[in-house]
């Protein structure tokens, strides 16, 4: 079972617009200066139950407070322990929450993802990749903590002020 360290049903900080945000347990990167080392172990936090999943789906579809989408953070949603659970979750959000986008933060770099991790990319819109590097820290960056991290616009165009050439687009 996947475990989590937090769930915000209404969040305007972690990604664009109003979102639901899930912070999962488990991260093997151990970045110096990590903002949340208590999330490193996969056996910390609380179980992500089916009941929580149903609530998350209902929140995403709640028309009283329209959500733009789901943000998956941690910890690391692409930690091998989390991969099967996240794969199932993102597929379900795709199926049951039409029009909602999915952003995912990982400490791995896109180029080093395994085949199992890459399958998840098929169902998300935006990936922010890379470890947090203290020497590259920059508080002015949007959605990222350090300059080495990249935003990969897999299925969603970048905002107008952040246009990158077509193809393998990313922001740095
Ligand atoms: S990838 Fe994120 S959660 Fe994991 S150690 Fe680095 S900063 Fe912490």
TrEMBL record:
Function: Activation of anaerobic ribonucleoside-triphosphate reductase under anaerobic conditions by generation of an organic free radical, using S-adenosylmethionine and reduced flavodoxin as cosubstrates to produce 5'-deoxy-adenosine.
UniProtKB keywords: 4Fe-4S, Iron, Iron-sulfur, Metal-binding, Oxidoreductase, S-adenosyl-L-methionine
Superkingdom: Bacteria
PROSITE patterns according to UniProt: RADICAL_ACTIVATING
UniProt cross-references to PANTHER family, sorted A to Z: ANAEROBIC RIBONUCLEOSIDE-TRIPHOSPHATE REDUCTASE-ACTIVATING PROTEIN, PYRUVATE FORMATE-LYASE-ACTIVATING ENZYME
Protein known as: Anaerobic ribonucleoside-triphosphate reductase-activating protein
Organism: Pantoea eucrina
Pfam family, one: Fer4_12
